[in-house]
Amino acid sequence: MYDIRVTPVPAYKDKPQDESKLGFGRRFTDYMFVMEYNRKDGWCNARVQPYEKFQMDPACMVLHYGQSVFEGMKCYRRKDGGLQLFRPRDNFARMNRSADRLAIPMFDEEMAMAGLVKLLEIEKDWVPHSEGTSLYIRPTIIATDPFLGVHPSNTYLFYIILCPVGAYYAHGLAPVGIYVEDQYVRAVRGGFGFTKTAGNYAASLKASVVAEEKGYDQVLWLDGVEQKYVEEVGSMNIMFKIGGKLITPALNGSILGGITRDSILKMARHMGLEVEERKIAIDEVFDAAANGTLEEAFGTGTAAVVSPVGELCKDGQVITINGGKIGPVAQAMYDQLTGIQYGRLEDPFGWIVKLS
Ligand SMILES: *Cc1c(COP(=O)(O)O)cnc(C)c1O
Questions:
Q1: How far is ligand 1, taken at its centre, from the CA of residue 233, in Å?
Q2: CA of 112 to the centre of ligand 1 (A)
Q3: Is 88 touching ligand 1 by the criterion CB < 6 Å?
Q4: What is the DSSP letter of 281?
Q5: Angle formed by the axes of helices 88-101 and 109-122, to 10°?
Q6: What is the pLDDT of residues 261-298, one digit of tens each?
Q7: What pLDDT was estimated at residue 24?
Q8: Average of pLDDT values for 69-82?
């Protein structure tokens, strides 16, 4: 249905031998999917081609004004050797919502799916086999006009690159320490906090350096208006279990709507757990810790799936959650979701797209 050319690579790279040393985001496969946009033809020239460097004009708009969006998802290998994706169409739909906010022309999501499937058919041997490993998928769009005026670009490049990634947790789900950021903010009302765009991450770097210097793993962002309400953590959404209920900030425009977040909320409701999506003040979390009703806290995202929070620090005040250990809900969500993603458990939600 979609015409996707394939240009073969002249030589294959060596595939990683030791899957325990894969790490994250450092090695890339032999091929990438690329398509281009111009005003006359729209999105065009879809192809799978060798992974290679781009030639860029120094005036290229993405380099100056950050007009770009990206996505992150994974291809999983089942025990029987077959491959599968988890909710990939939700990633492309979110990418189009991000694109629209950044004044980037939207693309045909089925075209992107076809490109991804073709790329994965060719690169299937790059999907690692060991427990907890996967092939990370990074779709990206960048503005390519060589032009210094502040205006949406007339030309764009859409590409998908792949990298084999290691098990996030080599030694069980280790809880992290989180620093509640009360000086810098990540996103504001009416801005583009809900999009995956480069600028959001640029805005976050300084605070994460400061948090690391203080001995914390990540930053918990508060809202950009009053710095009172919890938003999210680094590149994860955040959930709390307070008084038996699973509570997470409602999607208000400044929070990224995580697919892991949505999946865990659906699984929680399916398991009969009471779920609340609403504003949650950081004081409510600290009060709950003080009165003994804060049972668990964990981040959710594609990379880690679930990341238990063992400690929260705000203004020099430190609370320890569930004795600094992973709680039963975080563990159950992790087991269930990774079970579905790797094909160990049945998928009652229709989330899996099997490739082979
Ligand atoms: C990607 C991302 C998430 C998590 O989204 P998933 O779809 O679950 O991977 C959360 N917050 C931010 C800022 C992100 O970039």
A1: 9
A2: 20
A3: no
A4: B
A5: 130
A6: 999 999 999 999 999 999 999 999 999 999 999 999 99
A7: 92
A8: 98
